[in-house]
From TrEMBL:
PROSITE patterns: PROKAR_LIPOPROTEIN (PS51257). Gene3D superfamilies: 2.60.120.200, Alkaline Phosphatase, subunit A. This is Type I phosphodiesterase/nucleotide pyrophosphatase. The lineage of its organism: Bacteria, Pseudomonadati, Bacteroidota, Sphingobacteriia, Sphingobacteriales. Keywords: Membrane, Transmembrane, Transmembrane helix.
């Protein structure tokens, strides 16, 4: 009983403590009112293209007037942008507004009507790969968004064929009226205007009448006038009532440059244009372009290859007991497969049995190595292969060289070099007669000789020297851009063909005065490519270079306007503005 009384008292005690704890008051913390975040309105992105026909990037780099110069402080820009390889008025505009090269949109030259299906002028019923084009104005309409657009030009054909999907279309008599009306449109149009194109023609007309260079006073004056217009247009944009809520990308560019008083070809003078992408938040940056070279694609095997006929090639025969060095630049598009060894160039009657002469070759994929082939049809084994040290690569300029030289033992030897690295020395005297081939043509490509494979690539800077150059001279050719009077071996040079003679049907011999030693190719269809030129810079230094093409403009403006290009657009251009988002995404 006593134990139960004790537990009874303990139980009441615990209960009392719990009751006391339940009655304890706690002080509530003070209320803290957090400040609501500010209502940061996202600015609406808009694009204006100012396209100055005939404004040469070469000329503008030498003389940049004040308003354009001011834009560069906040622009990603280049003076070495590349217009379409067909630098006519129509072809370049089709490229500018479609983001595709003429090889895809099918417009060549100055007229939009040349290669367009009248029943399908914009390629709506086709893939767009062969002919036809869809401009960015129509791409805007495809989005189903309320994005207003306008265009302004003095060229009716341009308005009819490339600007016809703009919501507001302005065609005036001259640049002055185009500028005034465009400014009025920018000032008065509702705030949802998203895209505009303004075209000026005066610079082009001045170039056609007196030359596309600063030595033409009228051309320089026309550039100054357009520069003033650009300043006024920029001020009009910044004066818009809704400007504080807008984020404008202003693109200043050209359709093409010019050579002499003309254009339409694929020379650098005709193709180099300014491309200026301005936004006040951009950090100014000049996009440095590498040195460029025009190269003809060689990928067939027939009699239409660039050729010097046999009657004029005796000087390029491998004479008995003479010393020679032959060098060139080569870029492979693809490698031969299997055992399909391919002739790159040479002076030979047959690439294997029964012939005489010499040739540069690339072996099939089994080895992929370069080699120099010497043919002596009277020898028991008429094929003598001098193999290079390295296998050929794809898409990379490589320097090939062969040296034939005599030694104190009275014999003649040969070495083949790839990028200055020598392969194994070969005795080309023992068991050999003559390599001379008096009936052989000198040709570039696989020609119509009986070789198994077909070379697919490009060749530039072929040089034939009538002496054995030192290893140091051969190695220096890796970096040499040209051969001229300043070159150490110029006096012994029998032929130098840069092979960048675009628009011609010849590769001119820069040494000889006679046309008989030019490579000629009057027939056949060939494609010209503009390539970054070979150099001896490091990979890190080369990575700084950037080639900005005319067809790159569409991907940039699509990105700016939050329009996602579809695969079906078949764009040639690539986006790069997104790499600089840290500058303009606030």
């Amino acid at each position: 009983m006593k134990r139960n009384a004790i537990w009874y008292k303990v139980g009441w005690g615990v209960l009392l403590i719990m009751l006391m704890m339940s009655c304890k008051k706690f002080v509530d913390p003070a209320l803290i009112f957090e400040k609501e975040p500010e209502n940061t309105k996202v600015k609406t992105r808009k694009v204006l293209i100012i396209a100055v026909d005939g404004l040469s990037g070469i000329a503008l780099e030498k003389y940049t007037p004040q308003h354009i110069q001011k834009l560069l402080e906040h622009a990603k820009y280049t003076y070495a942008g590349l217009s379409d390889a067909s630098s006519g008025d129509a072809s370049t505009w089709a490229t500018l507004l479609s983001g595709k090269s003429s090889a895809k949109h099918g417009v060549y030259g100055d007229s939009f009507e040349e290669d367009i299906d009248e029943d399908d002028p914009h390629g709506h019923n086709s893939s767009g790969q062969a002919t036809g084009y869809i401009t960015f104005f129509q791409r805007i309409l495809e989005q189903g968004k309320r994005m207003r657009s306008f265009s302004a030009t003095s060229r009716q054909e341009l308005d009819d064929n490339a600007l016809d999907y703009a919501e507001t279309r302005i065609v005036k008599a001259n640049d002055e009226e185009v500028k005034k009306t465009a400014i009025d449109t920018l000032k008065s149009t509702l705030t949802n205007t998203s895209f505009g194109v303004i075209n000026f023609r005066g610079v082009n007309e001045a170039g056609k009448s007196g030359g596309f260079s600063l030595s033409n006073a009228a051309y320089k004056a026309a550039i100054d006038k357009i520069d003033g217009y650009i300043g006024e247009i920029k001020a009009a944009i910044e004066g818009r009532s809704a400007f504080e809520n807008e984020d404008w990308l202003i693109v200043v560019t050209a359709n093409h440059g010019g050579l002499g008083q003309g254009y339409g070809g694929a020379s650098l003078e005709e193709r180099k244009i300014p491309i200026i992408l301005y936004n006040p938040n951009f950090v100014g940056q000049k996009m440095e372009a590498p040195a460029l070279v025009n190269s003809m694609e060689i990928k067939t095997k027939d009699a239409n290859m660039p050729t010097i006929t046999a009657a004029n090639t005796d000087i390029y025969d491998i004479k008995d007991d003479k010393e020679y060095t032959i060098m060139c630049k080569v870029k492979n598009n693809v490698k031969p497969t299997g055992g399909n060894h391919a002739v790159i160039l040479g002076r030979v009657t047959h690439a294997y049995t029964g012939g005489n002469g010499w040739a540069f070759m690339i072996e099939g994929a089994n080895t992929g190595k370069y080699r120099f082939y010497l043919a002596d049809k009277n020898a028991s084994n008429n094929q003598l292969q001098v193999v290079g040290s390295l296998a050929g690569e794809v898409g990379k300029w490589e320097t090939l060289a062969v040296k034939l030289y005599k030694k104190d033992d009275g014999k003649r030897y040969a070495k083949f070099y790839v990028n200055g690295v020598a392969g194994e020395e070969r005795d080309i005297t023992t068991g050999r007669g003559s390599f001379q081939a008096p009936t052989a043509n000198f040709f570039v490509g696989s020609g119509n000789v009986s070789s198994v494979g077909t070379f697919n690539g490009m060749v530039n800077n072929l040089v034939f020297v009538t002496k054995a150059l030192s290893d140091e001279e051969i190695q220096s050719y890796n970096c040499l851009g040209t051969v001229d009077e300043s070159t150490s071996f110029w006096s012994q040079t029998a032929g130098f063909w840069s092979m960048d003679d675009i628009g011609q049907r010849t590769f001119k011999n820069k040494v000889a005065t006679s046309l008989d030693t030019d490579f000629k190719f009057p027939n056949g269809n060939y494609t010209w490519n503009l390539n970054a030129k070979w150099n001896c810079l490091s990979e890190q230094e080369n990575a700084k270079f950037f080639i900005m093409n005319q067809y790159d403009i569409v991907p940039q403006i699509a990105y700016w306007m939050d329009i996602k290009p579809q695969d079906s657009w078949l764009l040639d251009g690539k986006l790069f503005l997104d790499k600089y988002e840290m500058e303009f995404l606030k």
